[in-house]
Specification:
Elements (H helix, E strand, L loop, with lengths): L1 H35 L1 H19 L3 H26 L3 H7 L6 H25 L3 H23 L3 H20 L3 H4 L10 H6 L2 H12 L3 H9 L2 H37 L5 H24 L1 H8 L11 H23 L6 H17 L4 H29 L1
Length: 392
């Protein structure tokens, strides 16, 4: 949670320095980065489940083989894919009305770094070495905040470049607590990349669906609405992430623990329902604060330039609450291995894309469209979870 506070402060401070127009550009670029990093988030889920499962059986040789083979694969395949995407950089910059194409290149390079870092941090998560993971996350958060503040005065490109630099440092730091695993002499029993990826397609589609739902709206607003409005919407999106960040530590622990309990035949219902209840309570509390003190909240965190977005803060909190609850249920389903949920999530993401293409004439219209889709998503996930328990 401390790391999340630092990550949030980054947006608040940098947003004040850049102002609404440039911050709208930064928010759209970061949302693009989140979408491109869907494969990395999928890796986090797959690797965490793999490590938690094999660690429970003491099969550390398989974990070492995973890190070495997957790291080599990502360096090769990732570089080829990202190099190919560089051709599309000018078109992406034009679609988002971004002034400097170089910043799009920085985003693509950051995806490679993110994929490698995710593999290492997911091993820590799967091993339930939460302290080491959080120490590194906090160091990265502080470095990103400091470098972002220093770079923001030079514009969006410098800010994104500074973030790329701190990502590289975080990757190097994550190697340190894993040296005992990487140096283990225990041989792998049955691991192969083919077996890992053969079961990861559904996981990829699951993470793609849930991640796109919280990012593509910012990208589409940047394309359809005026620059000033997109800057306000970027601020609302970041404010809404307070709700997600407040609960993310619960989700971080939920996935490996549910995976371990499922692998050993233990019940998980009370853990899952308790987690969803806590997340819902936190989300509703913060949303109530948004409704009661919208002007104060935006002015305190972003400054007077963003106060015009205050009428929309409370309703955006509703969307963020539904999204965070949905994400929690998805993590529980991932822990149980119920990856068929991807059909629900991809359907919701496509529906969001279609409806926002039709209803984007104002900020309020975009938010209410998001709320309707997210509410239906939560209901659908709860029904699916109950159905999955009966067959588990």
């Amino acid at each position: 949670m401390a790391a999340n506070v630092g990550a949030y402060l980054y947006h608040l401070v940098v947003g004040r320095i850049l102002g609404p127009v440039q911050y709208g550009e930064l928010a759209a670029l970061l949302s693009l980065s989140y979408i491109l990093n869907v494969f990395s988030v999928m890796l986090q889920t797959v690797v965490t489940r793999f490590v938690a499962h094999h660690a429970a059986k003491g099969e550390y040789g398989d974990i070492r083989t995973l890190v070495l083979h997957l790291g080599a694969f990502l360096l090769g395949a990732g570089a080829i894919v990202i190099f190919s995407l560089l051709i599309a950089a000018p078109m992406i910059a034009s679609f988002l009305h971004v002034r400097d194409t170089i910043v799009v290149y920085f985003i693509f390079i950051g995806v490679i770094v993110s994929m490698l870092s995710i593999v290492l941090s997911s091993v820590l998560q799967g091993l339930q070495r939460f302290t080491a993971g959080m120490v590194i996350a906090n160091i990265n958060s502080v470095l990103r905040l400091v470098s972002g503040v220093l770079a923001a005065g030079f514009g969006v490109t410098a800010t994104i470049g500074a973030g790329l630099g701190t990502g590289i440092i975080a990757f190097i730091l994550t190697l340190l607590p894993l040296r005992t695993i990487l140096l283990t002499k225990q041989k792998s029993s049955s691991f192969s990349l083919q077996s890992l990826f053969s079961t990861s397609t559904a996981t990829f589609l699951t993470i793609l669906g849930i991640s796109v739902m919280n990012s593509q709206d910012v990208v589409m607003v940047k394309h359809f609405l005026p620059e000033l409005a997109s800057g306000w919407y970027g601020a609302l999106s970041t404010m809404g992430k307070i709700i997600f960040f407040a609960s993310s530590s619960i989700m971080y622990v939920l996935l490996p623990v549910v995976t371990e309990r499922s692998a050993t035949g233990k019940h998980t219902q009370s853990l899952v329902y308790g987690s969803v209840g806590i997340v819902a309570a936190l989300s509703l509390t913060i949303t109530a604060g948004f409704f009661l003190l919208p002007v104060f909240s935006l002015q305190l965190l972003y400054g007077s330039a963003f106060v015009a977005a205050s009428p929309y803060l409370g309703i955006f909190g509703i969307f963020s609450s539904f999204y965070t609850i949905a994400y929690t249920i998805v993590m529980a389903l991932m822990g149980l291995g119920k990856t068929a949920v991807w059909m629900i999530l991809i359907g919701a993401a496509i529906l969001q894309d279609v409806l926002l293409s039709m209803f984007h004439q104002s900020i309020a219209m975009v938010i209410w469209t998001n709320i309707a889709i997210a509410a239906v998503l939560v209901l659908s996930l709860l029904v699916y979870y109950r159905h999955a328990l009966q067959k588990h």
